[in-house]
Amino acid sequence: MTRSTQNGVGRVVGRGDRVGAGGPAAAVVALVCCEVLLRARVRAVVSSGRDRGDVPGWVLVTLMTAGLVVGLWAVAGPRLEAMFTQSMDRVLAQL
C-alpha cells in the first residue's frame, strides 16, 4: 500500500486500487491512513491561525431566527396551544 499525492490531495493506493481488493485488513489499513491524513489536514488548518468564521453573520442569523420565532409565536401562539392541548387530550384519552 502506497500513498500518492495528486493536486495536493492525498490518496491511498492499494492492491488493485479499488475498494475491497485486499480484503478486510486492507480496508482497515485504508481507513487508518485516511484518518491520519484527515487529522494532519485538520491540524494544519487549525495551526494556520486563519480566521474561518464570520461571527457577525452568525449573530445576525441567530437574532433573525429568534425574531421569527417570537413573531410567529405572538401570531399563532393561542392556536398552537389549542392544537397541543387537543392532541394531548386525545393521547391521554387512549390510555
TrEMBL record:
Residues 1-21 are annotated as: Disordered. Keywords: Membrane, Transmembrane, Transmembrane helix. It comes from the Bacteria. The chain crosses the membrane at residues 20-38, 58-76. This is Uncharacterized protein.
